[in-house]
């Protein structure tokens, strides 16, 4: 089998065009907001005895909050671009593809949930490796991505295990910034209708307001969709495969439609934003784990915890798995212990 070579990151300059367009949009909105709303609110060009103190105070508060959110937005956007989403490790016997098709349970006691209908482990024909749960091959990046959500041209990167938090925070801070611009600039829009306002000022104020409303509505819908996905412990790919009618789509849900990776709202959020709530909305403290293994409702520890608390265990669909093989001595010891 010929293995596809890994593509050098950022090797195609043309794919930076969406990033450049988005950066220019952010810069344009920032400049328009500052020039036609923020700075006029501070009234630097107005004599001190004629300044509107209430308007000036609101301007300071708006600008401080706006710059804090914008700085966080830029940091998260840069990190979502530069942070590799994660891929299958090289030279690891547990993930190196073997043509003998040995089953999942024969390799290091891996408790994988996703496999072929034949019971064999999923593997990537391009990378020549077995796939962990929630891993998919990206044909744009030409590599397998851990917990792949989707490939995003706006960050010239895949959204996966290691950078999903930064992508999620980019959406959050974008929504806050756009709504702040749209609601606060409405005051400047009303003032721009004055007959003494120049056409240039009126045009750019209306342009900034219209653009912020349009992008705000669009990104807000996208953000709430990802909030819902996070609470369901589901990726965009898993949503499309399981919720959309597709021919021969693999279904790894249980009978009531709940994902096997769903561990409850709190743990689902921690799986994206990290274990410490104090750092959930900061570009630090990523989620724990390696992106290769996941605790599920069928993990033995989870079963014991749910059984002890009287919680209904979420069952997983039956899979055609080969019986686990043990050394003879260990098997005999186990049989004796059960008697």
Protein model, in words:
The chain has 339 residues and is mainly alpha-helical. It has one domain (13-306). The protein is 46% helix and 5% strand. It is built from nine helices and six strands. A two-stranded antiparallel sheet has the order 1-2. Helix 1 runs antiparallel to helix 2 (53-82), helix 1 (17-42) packs across helix 5 (199-232) and helix 4 (186-192) packs antiparallel against helix 5 (199-232). It is elongated, with a radius of gyration of 26 Å. The relative contact order is 0.12. Mean pLDDT is 82; it is low at 1-5, 103-108, 244-250 and 309-339.
Q: Topology of this structure?
A:
Elements: H1 17-42, H2 53-82, E1 123-124, E2 129-130, E3 136-138, E4 143-145, E5 150-152, E6 157-159, H3 164-184, H4 186-192, H5 199-232, H6 236-243, H7 265-273, H8 300-309, H9 328-338
Antiparallel strand pairs: 1-2, 3-4, 5-6
Helix pairs in contact: 1-2, 1-5, 2-3, 3-5, 4-5
What string gives the helices and strands in order? HHEEEEEEHHHHHHH
Quaternary state of the chains: single chain
**Main sheet attributes: strand count, strand direction, barrel closure:** 2 strands, antiparallel
Find the structural class using helix and strand composition: mainly alpha
Strand content: under 5%
Indicate the radius of gyration in whole angstroms. 26 Å
* Morphology: elongated
Task: State the total count of DSSP E strands.
Answer: 6
The low-confidence runs, each spanning 5 or more residues with pLDDT under 50, are 1-5, 103-108, 244-250, 309-339
> Roughly how much helix do the residues carry, as a percent range?
40-55%
The overall average pLDDT, rounded, is 82
Number of helical elements: 9
């Amino acid at each position: 089998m010929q293995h596809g070579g890994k593509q050098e990151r950022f090797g195609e300059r043309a794919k930076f065009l969406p990033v450049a367009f988005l950066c220019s949009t952010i810069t344009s909105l920032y400049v328009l907001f500052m020039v036609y709303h923020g700075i006029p609110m501070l009234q630097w060009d107005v004599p001190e005895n004629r300044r509107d103190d209430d308007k000036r105070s609101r301007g300071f508060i708006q600008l401080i909050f706006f710059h804090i959110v914008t700085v966080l937005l830029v940091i998260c956007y840069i990190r979502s671009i530069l942070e590799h989403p994660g891929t299958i490790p090289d030279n690891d016997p547990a993930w190196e593809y073997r043509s003998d098709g040995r089953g999942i349970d024969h390799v290091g006691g891996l408790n994988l949930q996703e496999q072929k209908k034949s019971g064999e482990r999923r593997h990537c024909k391009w990378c020549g490796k077995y796939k962990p749960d929630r891993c998919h091959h990206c044909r744009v990046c030409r590599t397998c991505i851990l917990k792949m959500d989707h490939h995003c041209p706006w960050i010239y990167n895949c959204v996966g295990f290691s950078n999903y938090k930064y992508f999620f925070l980019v959406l959050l801070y974008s929504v806050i910034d756009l709504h702040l611009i749209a609601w606060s600039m409405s005051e400047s829009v009303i003032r721009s209708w004055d007959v003494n306002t120049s056409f240039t000022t009126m045009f750019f104020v209306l342009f900034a307001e219209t653009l912020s409303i349009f992008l705000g509505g669009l990104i807000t819908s996208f953000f709430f969709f990802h909030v819902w996905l996070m609470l369901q412990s589901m990726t965009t790919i898993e949503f499309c495969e399981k919720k959309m009618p597709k021919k021969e789509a693999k279904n790894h849900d249980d009978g009531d439609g709940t994902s096997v990776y769903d561990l409850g709202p709190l743990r689902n959020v921690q799986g994206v934003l990290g274990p410490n709530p104090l750092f959930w909305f900061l570009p630090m403290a990523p989620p724990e784990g390696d992106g290769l293994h996941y605790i599920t409702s069928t993990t033995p520890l989870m079963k014991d915890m749910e059984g002890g608390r009287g919680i209904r265990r979420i069952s997983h669909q039956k899979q055609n798995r080969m019986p686990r093989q043990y050394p003879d001595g260990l098997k005999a010891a186990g049989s004796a212990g059960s008697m």
